[in-house]
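step: validate -> pass
step: tokenize input -> pass
step: predict -> running
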Amino acid sequence: MGPMASLTDYVILSSILFALGAIGFVVRRNALILFMTVEMMLNAVNLMLVAFSKFRADMAGQVMVFFIYAVAAAEVAVGLAILIALFRHMRSVDITKYRLMKW
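step: predict -> pass
step: emit ->
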């Protein structure tokens, strides 16, 4: 068996994943890519919660991750339904063309 990963390793990996997701959310204009970057950021937070839960030897973080996944699944279902409706209306997934929801 190889060496165990330390808490610092998990924190660094989670921070890198979250930063990549945040940069992707700011830079990209495709609505599907935006959904994927938000999911990447949520998974980075989930990784951090599970890592802290493992090193604290309790289940609170893992239970919280379960509820985050449930909320994320609902968010994806509603978000994709809205995106499909907007695509049918505008024939594009480029968010710069969506002026429909602006005041």
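step: describe -> The chain has a mean pLDDT of 88.
step: cleanup -> pass
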